[in-house]
């Protein structure tokens, strides 16, 4: 399988925040943002692998600023790192005030996806080919996060 550049599977998804998305504090439900993140990451993972992919984990999700009704939410997803059957997808979320055009970085998330075959078992995927300095930095950071995830998984197994 030939490695694939990050740019081949990068996606950008745009939503407008509707009143039904708003919580009692007047900002978007965190769960709504989480659903959009998972969907954007899944599309990116499937585009990279051209396989059915499932969410294995959400490594980190950080909400940085509230988003109000009527704002535009932009999700940018890209493959940060690949292993044999899994990949880390990074999602950056921005909000835009439609009246001023001001954009804010409102959340970030890292998700791990696994490509699966028809029986639900893991299947090999193409490796990602980081080309830019930023892509290479994200690749190395994701590699470190993967090592930490595996270490924590082993620790959990020992405590069972």
Describe this structure in words.
- The protein has 160 residues and is of the alpha+beta class.
- It has a single domain, classed as Thiol Ester Dehydrase, Chain A.
- It has two helices and seven strands.
- The strands form two sheets. A five-stranded antiparallel β-sheet has the order 2-4-5-6-3. Strands 1-7 form a two-stranded parallel sheet.
- A hairpin with a 3-residue loop joins strand 4 (72-82) and strand 5 (86-96).
- The N and C termini lie far apart (38 Å).
- The model has no long low-confidence stretch (mean pLDDT 96).
**How would you write the strand order of the largest sheet?**
2-4-5-6-3
Distance between the termini: 38 Å
Could you tell me the strand content as a percent range? Answer: 35-45%
What is the typical, i.e. mean, pLDDT?
Answer: 96
Q: Can you tell me the CATH architecture?
A: Roll
Shape: globular
- The run of helices and strands is EEHEEEEEH
Question: What is the helix tally?
Answer: 2
CATH class division: Alpha Beta
Q: What's the total count of β strands?
A: 7
Largest β sheet strand count, sense and barrel closure = 5 strands, antiparallel
Low-confidence stretches: none
Helix content: 25-40%
Structural class: alpha+beta
Question: What is the name of the CATH topology?
Answer: Thiol Ester Dehydrase, Chain A
Lay out the secondary structure.
Layout: E1 4-5, E2 11-16, H1 30-49, E3 52-63, E4 72-82, E5 86-96, E6 103-116, E7 128-129, H2 133-158
Key features of this structure:
alpha+beta; Thiol Ester Dehydrase, Chain A; five-stranded antiparallel β-sheet; two-stranded parallel ribbon; 36% strand
């Amino acid at each position: 399988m030939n490695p694939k550049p990050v740019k081949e599977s990068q996606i950008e998804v745009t939503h407008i925040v509707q009143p039904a998305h708003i919580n009692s504090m007047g900002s978007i439900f965190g769960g709504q943002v989480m659903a959009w993140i998972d969907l954007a990451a899944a599309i990116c993972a499937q585009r990279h692998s051209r396989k059915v992919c499932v969410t294995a984990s959400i490594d980190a999700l950080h909400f940085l600023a509230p988003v109000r009704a009527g704002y535009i939410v932009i999700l940018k997803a890209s493959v940060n790192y690949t292993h044999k059957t899994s990949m880390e997808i990074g999602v950056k979320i921005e909000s835009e005030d439609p009246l001023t055009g001001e954009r804010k970085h409102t959340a970030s998330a890292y998700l791990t996806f696994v490509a699966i075959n028809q029986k639900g078992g893991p299947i090999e995927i193409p490796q990602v080919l980081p080309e830019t300095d930023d892509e290479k930095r994200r690749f190395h950071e994701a590699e470190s996060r993967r090592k930490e995830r595996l270490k924590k998984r082993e620790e959990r197994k020992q405590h069972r």
